[in-house]
Design a protein that fits this description.
Layout (H helix, E strand, L loop, with lengths): L12 H4 E7 L3 H13 L4 E4 L8 H4 L20 H6 L9 H14 L6 E2 L4 E7 L4 E6 L4 E9 L21 E4 L14 E5 L3 H11 L5 E6 L6 E2 L7 H9 L1 H10 L18 H14 L15 H18 L3 H7 L13 E2 L2 H4 L5 E5 L5 E5 L2 E4 L3 E3 L2 E4 L8 H5 L2 E2 L6 H4 L18 E3 L12 H21 L4 E4 L1 H16 L29 H13 L5 E4 L21
Parallel strand pairs: 1-2, 1-6, 2-3, 4-17, 6-18, 7-16, 8-9, 8-16, 9-12, 10-11
Antiparallel strand pairs: 4-5, 5-6, 13-14, 14-15, 19-20
The structure holds ligand NA7.
Ligand NA7 binds next to helix 6.
C-alpha cells in the first residue's frame, strides 16, 4: 500500500495518484476507506470539509439533535470489536454520542491518517484520455485517482430561504446545520425558530426549557410528530441487545426500511376508527418509527393514511391546551409520512408554556428580516436570536455543489437539469468509475442510514475488487440501464402518496429545483436483492472497459492491486 500525501504533490503526477478518492468522512466515507484500504490494499484518500470525522453528526450539533433510529441499529454491524467496545446510553443516540462513536470507529480502524480534513472539493473532472479522475480542492491541490466515490450524505447542504434583509439582522443567527461548537446561551433572550421539520421539532422544546425570555416559532406547515419515548438504556437492555445482535442485524438488513421491524401487511381500509385506534394506541405508547408500520399500506392507501393521520391529529388536540393553537398545529395539507415523519419529545406540550408562541406564516407571511427581528405582514417581532431550522438542499445539493464533470466535460448539473438520473443510485452514465454512496434513486433517507450505507459500501468495494482482479479499467452504467432505473423510480413513486406532498423528498423545498421524487421507494429489501443480482450477473447494466482510448499519453498506469493473499 503506498503512502502518498495530497499535500504538495501536484508537481509529480505519480505522487498525486490514488486508487480511490472518497469525499466525506461520515458513516459512509469511513467504512469505504476501511474496505478499500484495509481489505483491498488500495491507496485511498478521503477529503473532508470538516475538521473532524462525523459528517452529518459533525455539523448538526444543535440542542436536541438526536437520531430517530434506535441506537443499537444506528451503528456499523461489520466489526464485532466495535460492537463489543461501544455502549449506547439511550434508546435514541444524541448527537455528541454518535459523534463520539464515529471518532472511536475512526481511531479503532486507524482511519485518520488517510483523511484530509478542512479541505473542500471544488471540481472533480473525468480525464477522458487517461481514464482517471482529477479532483481539485480549495487549497489549490489536484489529486488524480482511478475511482471517485462520493460519501457526502443526503442532507449536508444547509438551506436558508432568501429572506430579504437576512444579513441586516443585528442579533445572533444561524442555521441548525451550521451550529457553533461553543455553547449557545438562550437565557433571557427573545428567540425565534423558523421551521417545524424534524429539526425544528427537536430544537424547539430544548430552547423552550433553556429559560429564554420568549420563544416564537414561525411555522409554515404543521407536521405529524410521533412520540420518540426516549429513555436511558441500562445493563439489562444492553445485555439483551448483545445477546441478539445477529438476529437484530439480520432483520434490519433484510427489511424494507433498514430497521429491525417485521413488515406490516394489514390495512385500515374498511376498519372503524375505533378499531384503528385500538391498533395504533400500543404503537403510540411504544414510540418510534414502528408506529408507521402498523398498517402496510400507509403510504399507498389514502383511506388507511387518512385514518392514521386523524389519529395523530386527535393526539395533538388532546395535548395542546388552547384549541385555536391546537388547530394551527394540526396538519391537514398532506398525508402522514409523505413528508419526513419526525419523532418528538414534548414538542406539542411545549406550546402550553406561556413563554412560547406560534406564528403561522401562511396567515401572516414573513415579509423581511430587519436589523431587530422578523417583520410579518401583521407586525414586527423583535428578537435577540434567530434560528433557521429551514432544512437542506437534500439528496443532490452537495453533489451538484462539487462541480462534477464527466466524459467530454459534461457537468452533473447539465446531466441532472430535469432531476437526478442514475443507475441504482450507485452510478451515472457519462461519469465512469464514479460511485455515489446512498445517492439519489437509492433507498437512503427512507431507511435507517447505516444499513443502507453498509450495503452500498460493500457493493462498491466488491465492484472495485472485481475490476482490479480482472484488469478492467472502467465501469459505467449504460444509458439504457440508467433510463430504465429512472423510469422505474418514477413509476414506483407514482404508486404511492408521496408525490402528493410538497417535500424535500420531492425537491420542492428548494426554489427552481425540478419536482421529482428523489429517493427510491421500492423497498430496501427488494433494492438490495436487485443490486446483488446485478453484481452476480457480471454487473449487468454497466459497461466494463478493459482499456482506455489513448491511455498512456500521460504516462500513467493504473496502480491498483489487491493485497497479497486476499
Ligand atoms: P425540513 O424537513 O426541510 O424542514 C424545514 C422547515 O423549514 C419546514 O418546516 C419548512 O416548512 C420550513 N421552511 C422552509 N422554508 C421556509 C420559509 N420560507 N418560511 C417558513 N418556513 C420555511 O428540514 P429539517 O432540518 O427539519 O429536517 C431535514 C432532515 O434532517 C430530517 O428530515 C432528518 O432526516 C434529518 P414547509 O414544511 O416546507 O412548509
Amino acid at each position: 500500500m503506498s503512502e502518498t500525501s495530497i499535500r504538495g504533490s501536484s508537481e509529480s503526477p505519480e505522487q498525486t495518484d490514488y486508487d480511490a478518492v472518497i469525499v466525506g468522512a461520515g458513516f459512509s466515507g469511513l467504512y469505504e476507506l476501511h474496505r478499500l484500504r484495509d481489505e483491498l490494499g488500495l491507496s485511498v484518500k478521503v477529503i473532508e470539509k470538516a475538521s473532524d470525522v462525523g459528517g452529518t453528526w459533525y455539523w448538526n450539533r444543535y440542542p436536541g439533535a438526536r437520531c430517530d433510529s434506535e441506537s443499537h441499529v444506528y451503528c456499523y454491524s461489520f466489526n464485532d470489536e466495535l460492537l463489543d467496545e461501544w455502549d449506547w446510553s439511550e434508546r435514541y443516540p444524541e448527537q455528541p454520542e454518535v459523534l463520539e462513536y464515529l471518532r472511536l470507529a475512526a481511531d479503532h480502524l486507524d482511519l485518520r491518517r488517510d483523511i484530509e480534513f478542512d479541505t473542500e472539493v471544488t471540481t472533480a473532472e473525468f480525464d477522458d484520455s487517461a481514464g482517471t479522475w482529477k479532483i481539485h480542492t480549495d487549497d489549490g491541490e489536484t489529486v488524480r485517482s482511478q475511482f471517485f466515490i462520493t460519501a457526502v450524505g443526503c442532507l449536508s447542504k444547509p438551506f436558508i430561504p432568501d429572506f430579504e434583509g437576512i444579513e441586516s439582522f443585528e442579533g445572533w443567527w444561524t442555521h441548525t446545520g451550521k451550529w457553533p461548537h461553543d455553547p449557545v446561551d438562550f437565557e433571557d433572550k427573545q428567540v425565534a425558530v423558523v421551521g417545524t421539520g424534524a429539526t425544528g421539532i427537536q430544537i424547539i422544546p430544548e430552547i423552550a426549557t433553556s429559560n429564554p425570555a420568549h420563544l416564537t416559532v414561525f411555522q409554515r406547515t404543521p407536521n405529524y410528530a410521533v412520540p420518540a419515548r426516549n429513555r436511558p438504556l441500562d445493563e439489562d437492555d444492553r445485555a439483551e441487545i448483545r445477546d441478539n445482535y445477529d438476529e437484530i442485524f439480520d432483520l434490519a438488513h433484510s427489511s424494507g426500511f433498514g430497521h429491525p421491524f417485521e413488515a406490516a401487511y394489514d390495512t385500515a381500509e374498511g376498519l372503524s376508527m375505533e378499531e384503528v385506534e385500538k391498533r395504533l394506541e400500543p404503537r403510540w405508547e411504544e414510540g418510534g418509527f414502528r408506529f408507521m408500520l402498523t398498517f402496510g399500506d400507509l403510504v399507498t392507501s389514502a383511506e388507511t393514511n387518512e385514518k392514521v393521520s386523524e389519529f395523530i391529529r386527535q393526539k395533538i388536540r388532546e395535548t395542546v391546551d388552547d384549541p385555536d393553537l391546537a388547530e394551527k398545529l394540526v396538519p391537514r395539507d398532506h398525508y402522514y409520512a409523505t413528508k419526513r415523519p419526525p419523532l418528538h419529545t414534548d414538542y406539542y406540550r411545549t406550546y402550553n408554556r406561556d413563554d412560547v408562541s406560534l406564528v403561522d406564516v401562511t396567515e401572516t407571511p414573513i415579509e423581511r428580516i430587519t436589523p431587530s427581528g422578523i417583520r410579518t405582514s401583521e407586525t414586527e417581532h423583535e428578537f435577540d436570536m434567530i434560528v433557521y431550522a429551514t432544512g437542506f438542499d437534500a439528496m443532490t445539493g452537495t453533489l451538484l455543489q462539487m462541480d462534477i464533470q464527466g466524459r467530454n466535460g459534461l457537468t452533473l448539473e447539465e446531466k441532472w437539469e430535469d432531476g437526478p438520473k442514475t443507475y441504482l443510485g450507485l452510478g451515472i452514465h457519462g461519469f465512469p468509475n464514479m460511485f455515489t454512496i446512498t445517492g439519489p434513486q437509492s433507498p437512503s433517507v427512507l431507511t435507517n442510514m447505516p444499513v443502507s450505507i453498509e450495503h452500498h459500501v460493500e457493493w462498491i468495494s466488491d465492484a472495485v475488487e472485481h475490476l482490479v482482479r480482472n484488469d478492467i479499467r472502467l465501469i459505467e452504467p449504460t444509458k439504457e440501464a440508467e433510463e430504465s432505473w429512472t423510469v422505474h423510480n418514477r413509476q414506483v413513486a407514482e404508486q404511492t402518496l408521496y408525490p402528493t406532498a410538497d417535500s424535500w423528498y420531492m425537491n420542492q423545498n428548494i426554489p427552481d429545483k425540478p419536482t421529482v421524487f428523489t429517493p427510491y421507494i421500492g423497498g430496501a429489501d427488494l433494492y438490495h436483492d436487485t443490486i446483488r443480482e446485478v453484481a452476480e450477473k457480471g454487473y449487468e447494466g454497466f459497461e466494463l472497459t478493459e482499456s482506455v482510448t489513448n491511455l498512456g499519453q500521460q504516462g500513467e498506469q493504473p496502480r491498483l492491486r489487491v493485497m497479497e493473499g486476499d
